[in-house]
Batch of 2 targets.
Target 1
Amino acid sequence: AAHVIVVGNEKGGAGKSTVAMHLAVALMRMGKTVGAIDLDLRQRTFGRYLANRTQWCEKRGLDLPRPHEIILTPSTLRDLDLAEAEETDRFSDALSDLKTRCDFILIDAPGADTLYSRLAHASADTVITPVNDSFIDFDLLAEIDPETYQVGKPSLYSEMVWECRKQKAATQKRSIDWVVMRNRVSMLDARNKRRVGEGLKMLSQRIGFRLAPGFAERVIYRELFPLGLTLLDLTESGSTVTFTMSHVAARQELRDLLIVLKLPGLEG
Amino acid sequence: AAHVIVVGNEKGGAGKSTVAMHLAVALMRMGKTVGAIDLDLRQRTFGRYLANRTQWCEKRGLDLPRPHEIILTPSTLRDLDLAEAEETDRFSDALSDLKTRCDFILIDAPGADTLYSRLAHASADTVITPVNDSFIDFDLLAEIDPETYQVGKPSLYSEMVWECRKQKAATQKRSIDWVVMRNRVSMLDARNKRRVGEGLKMLSQRIGFRLAPGFAERVIYRELFPLGLTLLDLTESGSTVTFTMSHVAARQELRDLLIVLKLPGLEG
Ligand SMILES: Nc1ncnc2c1ncn2[C@@H]1O[C@H](COP(=O)(O)OP(=O)(O)OP(=O)(O)O)[C@@H](O)[C@H]1O
Ligand SMILES: Nc1ncnc2c1ncn2[C@@H]1O[C@H](COP(=O)(O)OP(=O)(O)OP(=O)(O)O)[C@@H](O)[C@H]1O
Ligand SMILES: [Mg+2]
Ligand SMILES: [Mg+2]
């Protein structure tokens, strides 16, 4: 059965679309069939990234691996109850469709609390939450004591994931593997990095997520967006970007993340 | 008359709340009365930052300058037309209220296209748009050619600002000063930084915004959130953070931004 991965974090700019794209390409390069749904209906960063990839392939006559994307539109009904019913149907149709033909389905959630986002979280096998190394981002997971940096009560996004977890357990009798990873980690940050790290460790035990190795801030994670490429595509894409120590390190970060995700059907 | 500054960018995580907080504190420390409205109604990063500041003051018996904040709530009506009418009234009441008692009003817009966000943009004297040094962020301003990096047609957020500009010109016979600044700029990025910079320069002439000096990626811009402090508060806040070269540089970045903003009633 297809394994659904939702890349979610209500906080804007945590790196959801970046992680979604890199996981999609990594899985395809491991021989898997991948489905893609971009739930950021207006900005569609993930969808745009995939469209850039298709355009680059056509321009250069390349045959890079591409996921099966289903594009969802928002309901235009002015009555919210009817609009939500419409969106619920559209989402389940798209998901059933992709489940018939993909090993993995990558869903990029928006940086907002929308119905589509909740429907996705409640259908996830894995929720992966990238988070900036920052208490501004942490604030959506839990409160923190400003003097002791002890973790306080869970906050908005944690509550949302928990509600979706209960919903999934009730309807599908299955659990969600929630994995949190830091993203855009700076090389030049010691005290704040340690505090955020300790907060995440404390919180992981309290609200039930696993911690995965994260990604550093690296230009290679964002530089190739106009071409629709990732660092994993660089040997065959005809781009003029040369390999650097940062590329090698990024490749390792992506591999270490996949190892910790323990996705079904993958060997390490 | 009060000068309204909207910190806007539909793209998540560009640094809106960070810039809003730092501008608010800078203006108060220049002796101005500042009003604050956080339009990110759910996450309320700016509102939370201000609440942390109030708590820290109470805990330490400090009297740090604080803005007058008005908290707006979303309409709960299920009919979108009625809900929008309600929100339109709430917004204009809040703005009129603050205009009677503030020199500057700082409005932190959400990373999404909401009615409140559009109402704010259409009432702005200055719109300041922070943007990451990335074509993923750039994509919400305009398209870019992946081979020549020539700027293409304007995209979602540019169109939104333009619609609000027209609305303001029609209703208030006044213009909006739109200023774009880069944020979280990496020290270790040459080619991508140059390309994004050239794209912004090209776009600024085409769609009518001014470019302001931006902020580098610095831990000091985010580390003090739990205390509700900014680097400008550090001499009196009782925090144990020591001054570093980065603090001095950040202070200069904030000053250079204020100079370019050319806000009324400020001497350089
Ligand atoms: N590890 C990284 N190194 C360098 N830049 C990164 C990294 N991760 C993300 N970025 C950049 O940070 C910004 C935010 O990333 P991204 O758009 O993927 O986040 P998001 O969570 O999808 O945002 P939104 O909430 O708007 O959907 C983008 O400009 C992106 O290019
Ligand atoms: N110049 C900077 N240096 C270091 N960190 C920064 C800087 N600017 C912003 N950040 C961090 O980047 C993240 C995004 O910033 P912020 O929340 O201010 O953006 P935003 O545009 O308000 O996001 P949202 O779309 O969610 O409202 C936060 O973790 C913040 O602490
Ligand atoms: Mg995104
Ligand atoms: Mg914000």
Target 2
Amino acid sequence: RKERLTAVLEIVSDNFTRTYAHLQPGGHGELKLENPKKPFEGGLEMWARPPGKASGLNLLSGGEKSMAALALIFAIQDYEPSPFYYFDEVDQNLDTFNAEATASLCKLRAQSAQFIMVTLRKVSLEMADHHIGITHAGDGCSRMITDFGREAAIEVGDAAYVEL
Amino acid sequence: RKERLTAVLEIVSDNFTRTYAHLQPGGHGELKLENPKKPFEGGLEMWARPPGKASGLNLLSGGEKSMAALALIFAIQDYEPSPFYYFDEVDQNLDTFNAEATASLCKLRAQSAQFIMVTLRKVSLEMADHHIGITHAGDGCSRMITDFGREAAIEVGDAAYVEL
Amino acid sequence: MHLVALELENFKSFKGEVTIPLSEGFTAVTGPNGSGKSNIGDAIQFVLGPKSSKSLRAQNLKQLIYNGGEKGRAAKFCKATLVFSNSSRNGGRRRLKLDADEVRLTRTIKLGRKDNINSAYHLNERPSSATEFRRLLTEAGARGDGYNIVLQGDVTQLAIMSGRARRRVLEDVA
Amino acid sequence: MHLVALELENFKSFKGEVTIPLSEGFTAVTGPNGSGKSNIGDAIQFVLGPKSSKSLRAQNLKQLIYNGGEKGRAAKFCKATLVFSNSSRNGGRRRLKLDADEVRLTRTIKLGRKDNINSAYHLNERPSSATEFRRLLTEAGARGDGYNIVLQGDVTQLAIMSGRARRRVLEDVA
Ligand SMILES: Nc1ncnc2c1ncn2[C@@H]1O[C@H](COP(=O)(O)OP(=O)(O)OP(=O)(O)O)[C@@H](O)[C@H]1O
Ligand SMILES: Nc1ncnc2c1ncn2[C@@H]1O[C@H](COP(=O)(O)OP(=O)(O)OP(=O)(O)O)[C@@H](O)[C@H]1O
Ligand SMILES: [Mg+2]
Ligand SMILES: [Mg+2]
């Protein structure tokens, strides 16, 4: 059990460092066991230093923490690749720069696996290859909007949703 | 102690119903004690029904839950009004329609008390009377951007932040 | 292998039959708050087999059946089908170990007498089981309970959870 | 009564002296992730008196002092001043029970020997205490621990907390 965990950690930790550096250029991230000799007696720390900052997870802002967590999610996905991925509003507290970095990493990974991303952000809608609009016309019944292309989607990201 | 809680609940619950109907036109919200006879033995339920939907807090979507929680926050604030308020990214998982409803309620309340709202959303930046930009030029030191007016702020909501 | 379509019938806020065609590459789903976007994620997990109904944001399976909204009639059953393409393109092996170009995984729940729920699984229209689904999907790397499905709020949870909870996440992966 | 300015010195990511002028009405604060927006909220709570340093997102008070970032030098003290206008406009009474048109509330922490922290309070430049601050502010309705200050994540927490936790929120209000 201990060997399995340390073996998995070694791979996921490398993935994490690589992906964090990709999402936050100039930053550095590491996964560290609190108690490397007895891993089951301690936790797993996600240590991240955004570019230009001092280090420490508890100093990170809301958006900086999300970027570290996203790097960890991608690191775990790389350990056990899946044919398709579903992401639900992972970009909600990111500024435009970070939302763009995240969406473009999804686009890159969408070359080898299918990515379905629920998003309200214009930046992510612009990067996507295909667009699906879901609405409920006030009666509580969900329906898909047919002929919902890129233009309509980007407009949604911009305008008040009511027009849908 | 019990009289105090029931008296406060009566006022806050009325505030909640009024504010929820204002934020979600056509919807209805109520605060209910799980155990009205022995309030300290049960919890306080926030019951909300968005327009056109069946009721129940656990059915609500992420954005619908946030609108109910915001109505509760305003309801508590009305019980004990303060000269100033600070809101930190309360609009992060709202669609444009709900973000607009929230920002315009803040603007309305800003006529009688000072409102300071940290936001990344264009809709909220457009509603504000004054704008403050904060940045860290890559060296980790926060500084205020002088001469940051409405136009610059709205552009920030639109463009990638890197330009800041 | 990729998800070709999602066929829903009375699943949560989707009344009646609704088919959502999907493509390879990067697909964005958008719409207003409460429109039903996250219910699509719940439908995918419902078929792939999550650890518990809690992760489908429902207190019990009954809450997955269309409840009629404010004025409509509640349905008595709901169904969700994941349609996967499974071609042996480029001469490689099929990712889902089944000799078919298209694989349909269907899960149905029906409201029985006294509110009990009957759950049924079908694989290309023939009866199947949760265990067969799980075996087939795990071999293809499409787990229902891994981080290939990131639900609303998962990122924030992962960022604020304790070190011990995060270690347990990694143990699940191992 | 309203906040006229926030004067920070070596408070968290704000190196040196930074003054943020504020106006009446609706003010929006924006900027990139990690720029220091929430640190402004922490500065307000630092002076108003939160229940604990945990709500200032710091494990201890030392973490509130500018740490130099990647290449700079850490400071040895930090200071935050809330400047309130307190005029008796329209002939009414002053909201803060102090006979001054402007009220400056300053809290300072200094790093002493062996990492211990000295904390000091000043009211219009004369020595004061946390208790005097709290008495003055509570009378004016500007509590440090109420929902007049809604920190990042508070809305989501309030939406997902248990019924018992929500009852306790109401008890605090009472
Ligand atoms: N069994 C059911 N029958 C009918 N409607 C249901 C059922 N279960 C959930 N709903 C409705 O589905 C809606 C929630 O949908 P969902 O969570 O998918 O929204 P969303 O599009 O993800 O919104 P957000 O952007 O706020 O996250 C709720 O309004 C709820 O009333
Ligand atoms: N004592 C300190 N000295 C220097 N920098 C600090 C200190 N404490 C926190 N920081 C820095 O402040 C930054 C966080 O700032 P803050 O949380 O205000 O960001 P924010 O603008 O709210 O971002 P977001 O939009 O992601 O919420 C972190 O990058 C952290 O390194
Ligand atoms: Mg959702
Ligand atoms: Mg913040």
